[in-house]
Amino acid sequence: MTSNPTRLGAIRNIEANEAPAAFFDADEKTGAIYGENVFSLSVMQKRLPKSVFKSVFATIQNGEKLDPAVADIVASAMKDWAMERGVTHYAHVFYPLTGLTAEKHDSFMEPVGDGTAVWEFSGKTLVQGEPDASSFPNGGIRATFEARGYTGWDVQSPAYILENPNGNTLCIPTIFVSMTGEALDHKTPLLRSQNAMSEQAKRVLALFGHEDIDNVVSYCGPEQEYFLVDTAFVNSRPDLLNAGRTLFGAKPPKGQEFDDHYFGAIPERVLGFMHDTERALFKLGVPAKTRHNEVAPGQFEIAPVFERANLASDHQQLIMSTFKSIAKTHGFQCLFHEKPFAGVNGSGKHVNFSFGNDNQGNFLNPGDNPHDNAQFLVFCAAVIRAVHLYGGLLRLSIASAGNDHRLGANEAPPAIISIFLGDQLQDVFEQIAKGGATSSKQKGVLSVGVDTLPDLTKDAGDRNRTSPMAFTGNRFEFRAAGSNQTVAAPMVVINTIMAEALDYLATELEAAVATGTEFNDAVQAVLAKVVEQHGAVVFNGNGYSEEWHAEAEQRGLKNLRTTVDALPEYQTPEAKKLFSTYGVFSEAELDSRFEVGVEQYVMTINVEANLTEEIARTTILPAAVRYQTELATNVASLKAAGVEADTTDLLTVTDLVTTLRSSIAALVAAQAGAGEHHGLEEAAYYRDAVLPAMLAVREAADALEAVVADDLWSLPTYQEMLFIR
């Protein structure tokens, strides 16, 4: 155990930690609480007139335009339902380009002239709100003196109640746009991209003979990874408090090399946190399904059931905010940074996605014989074309300063965007390229040699943990997304590039059929064309290998290693044409997102650089100098006593202190030079000059941590933060 009083105090706080008192009845039945705080379809059906419910249902299920005439009736029913549950305020909840959730609270109370008040909630208030648009990231769309912005009710994402001991709040998911109509959020382009993809998917489905086709949607099931660190440790780490990641920290004696944490028994204290979060999420209608230990010590994962992408995105934001608030009641801080600890697993948010609707099902379900499932093969070919043509945009959609530390290291895929199809689909598409697919590799039987166990079913293909875009049975998994980001960003790109690919395929098939080609022959021809033109993006091997990086370059695949490399993808002619063609982003909106991306990258690195200097100068250097003084005093005392003194440790520490001082000075100089650059050039400067200077400070500091006396080192160590629960 440490002998440093700061760290020792933190550990004793952990040892004394007690689970929070249960805030629910012991006899409460989990099944009965699911969705009880959601103004769901079933609630609306009970509370709304039949005609009004039918109108709202058509908007939610089929994407029909909302009838403004129903808003007052819905608002009144929503208010009555909410007030019965102790609600006094409502909030339009939106998702600005900060990546966080924003909300503006108002009371239902309306004063009247005689000193009393009434409780009102009008349809106009439900449908539209007005927050300040100039105080959120907007990339120049709104100036400080042009502050007006609007929120608009997203009917397809249900309102819900957030509980608080001091009063409950009705939360209404909304879009957020400027006064001139540009999207200032993540939800608006997600809804636009959904519409674009649906329109083109319906064309393909019509060619396959479907009639009365429902609105096509993308489905999303994001797996959320996160770390739990005791609050006492986090409060002693300015880097974790302000940057969400450790800027210093020597490698612990034991890390994740034994693989003993992955899927291990969940620690009791952590399990208590999970129980409370899941109960809160169930009440909000969030279908939390799976929980387990992840690879790194102190790392965990939650995975919800698939939902419509728009709802899944909103629920992801709820998961993150719920985790952070409930973690505090259990004495934890929940870390969503993509790389909070160097040398161990980073955290991703694997975006599993598919396309379909209630009537026609999942279009990425291959069935038992995918070679006979032409509709599936067309949709799968659309993914291949989309990823090959727009891999740079997919990389851009998950670009951040935090994710740069994760990609290509410890379980994360590389920055090269490729597709893993698996043995079965790879074989089918190879057959197509040669003239036509006639067979599919089948599932096998796995005998484990234990008499009491039945034979196990073996899939027709393996999985690939190194691929950024992997087919996993009935969906694709985009593994490159970072844990700290909204899933809306990658889903916007996925929907839009699928709209383009489905548009292309539908046009090719329609033209072929119009000239008398048999439909099946037309399908075979267009699939073969896709394989020929876009097969270079398919890679089933090891994405971590150096050989793949060289091969990917030969195949013409982009390797956008950093956010700075990826950001210009916003401004390519191809991107502007794509997003404008399908009505997802205007050129001004793309430019604004480029500006916001540059600004956020620069601000992130600048904050981290400031913290690096501050911690190194005020915490690490003083500890090292005190130890240097102790060693020097010891050497001097021994020499004065006529005893031969070993100066090895003193010289080692002295060299490291000198290195630390010079690296701090170099970091200060590097930061000072940033003012000479602007825009993307400034971001590149931070990447090429400031980040390496920060790393040099860290290297000296981490080397000192390994030799400075434990009682002088006040920063909680990796060993303590990762293993003490």
Describe the structure.
This is Glutamine synthetase III. Belongs to the glutamine synthetase family. Residues 88-181 form the GS beta-grasp domain. Pfam families: Gln-synt_C, Gln-synt_C-ter, GSIII_N. It is built from 24 helices and 20 strands. The protein is of the alpha+beta class and 725 residues long. The strands form four sheets. Strands 9, 10, 11, 12, 13, 14, 15, 16, 19 and 20 form a ten-stranded mixed β-sheet that branches. Strands 1, 2, 5, 6, 7 and 8 form a six-stranded mixed β-sheet that branches. A two-stranded antiparallel ribbon has the order 3-4. A hairpin with a 5-residue loop joins strand 10 and strand 11 (299-304). Helix 12 crosses helix 16, helix 16 crosses helix 17 (519-534) and helix 21 (587-640) packs antiparallel against helix 22 (648-672). The radius of gyration is 28 Å and the shape is globular.
